[in-house]
Specification:
By secondary structure, this protein is α+β, with helices and mostly antiparallel strands. Helix content is 19%, strand content 32%. The termini are far apart.
Length: 415
């Protein structure tokens, strides 16, 4: 057993190994207090000489605590041997005698990285009005396999001079070189949809391409924007919702997407789908028109009261500046014009011109259906001092209780 006072150091062992002149298979250190011997195994002296020097640098102290647990502490020692330390050679290698004999190895220069041009083999069908054919053979008589429409993209597989072999979507064939532009970054970007996704939280959308510029808003991680321009180094000009500004290019992943050509079968399926959608839209329009007819009754008479009865059906509908639809939106003069149109009377779409239609009427002679003209506004007189008119965007078509709510410039009667 090793008692509490025994300390065996690697430095002590190393000293013994250094000064031994003969190969040793076993070395023994005797504890004088216990007569126990601690034994170490080694190879030939040559192979542990360097290790001995290293061992003198780091001393391992074995000790025992109160519960008989062996502890290992590391204490930094000092190498007193000034001779150069030579590492053991690798198998088959040579160990230089001195550092000066180590040959100088020239430092390798890093290989220059050439930026990859993502547009190098992209063809854009931009020299056409509508479409160009993708053919089975590189000549004008080749079988038509599909079409590339204006600004469609393709990957160039082979350059034959007057023709390119390309893949565009699901169609692979030949297109005439005179109809496409290949490898032009500006043309590709114009034809493509370029988007960017924020890679971090707190990405500032700035008013200008500068970290000192004002901020429109802050984008969260994963927010998507449309890239409008990438020509400013380190910045992307983008559109996000109603904002157009700049974000740092270092915090955005860019995606470039194109529209591609189609096979003959794809074209046939698309045209069929479009025709079905057109028919469905026409049927929906007819349903809406019929619904309007069912909701809004045609006039039953041709006097002023019939005009008011018809006009009152549209109260609550939208005001739209310049609009001419009693159901989808009209402005003040459009309202008067469309109401009277139902009675076969054509009136101008102008509040100013309406002051001169029909005949003048005195305020004391007002009747339902008369046109009340104000500065920049018109209304229809209901009776009992009330009017119906397309008032504004907030109120739409409404009834007002006092026709004198603003100065009356003229009263005209057209029936």
């Amino acid at each position: 057993m090793i008692n509490n006072n025994l300390r065996i150091t690697a430095g002590f062992l190393a000293g013994i190994l250094l000064f031994s002149s003969t190969p040793a298979e076993w070395l023994a250190v005797e504890d004088t207090n216990t007569s126990e011997t601690v034994t170490y195994m080694s190879d030939e002296l040559y192979y542990f000489s360097a290790g001995a020097v290293s061992a003198m640098n780091e001393t391992v102290v074995l000790d025992k605590d109160d519960d008989d647990t062996i502890l290992a502490d590391k204490e930094t020692g000092v190498t007193e041997n000034d001779a150069p330390v030579v590492s053991e050679p690798e198998e088959g290698g040579e160990t230089p005698e001195t550092p000066e004999e180590t040959p100088d190895i020239p430092e390798e220069k890093p290989e220059e990285v050439v930026p990859v041009n993502p547009f190098a083999n992209i063809a854009i069908a931009n020299k056409i009005n509508n479409y160009t054919y993708v053919r089975k053979a590189p000549n004008a008589d080749g079988e038509v396999l599909g079409k590339m429409y204006k600004n469609n993209a393709a990957v160039v597989l082979e350059d034959l001079g007057d023709w390119y072999k390309v893949t565009s979507g699901n169609v692979t064939g030949y297109v005439a070189a005179k109809f496409v532009t290949v490898g032009d970054a500006a043309v590709c970007k114009k034809a493509a949809t370029i988007t960017a996704k924020s890679t971090t939280n707190g990405l500032r959308l700035r008013k200008k391409a500068s970290t000192s510029a004002g901020i429109y808003t802050i984008l969260g991680k994963g927010a998507k924007v449309t890239v409008l321009d990438d020509s400013t180094e380190g910045w992307l000009k983008v559109k996000y919702k109603s904002y157009t500004g700049y974000i740092s290019a270092d915090y955005a992943d860019i995606t470039i997407t194109y529209e591609y050509g189609e096979t003959k079968a794809e074209e046939k399926a698309r045209l069929k789908k479009e025709e079905e959608a057109k028919k469905k839209a026409e049927e929906e329009k007819k349903k809406q028109e019929q619904a309007e007819k069912d909701k809004y009754k045609d006039p039953t008479g041709k006097d002023g009261q019939a005009v008011i009865d018809y006009a009152l059906q549209f109260v609550g509908n939208k005001y739209v500046w310049g609009g001419e639809s009693l159901t989808k939106g009209v402005d003040c003069s459009g309202f008067v014009m469309k109401v009277y149109e139902k009675f076969g009377i054509k009136l101008p779409h102008s509040s100013y011109k309406l002051r001169k239609v029909g005949k003048a009427v005195k305020a004391s002679d007002l009747q339902p259906g008369d046109i009340i003209c104000y500065s920049g506004h018109v209304a229809l007189y209901i009776g009992n001092g009330k009017i119906v008119h397309a008032a504004n965007k907030k109120d739409g078509i409404k009834i007002s209780n006092n026709y004198k709510y603003k100065k009356v410039l003229a009263i005209r009667r057209v029936l």
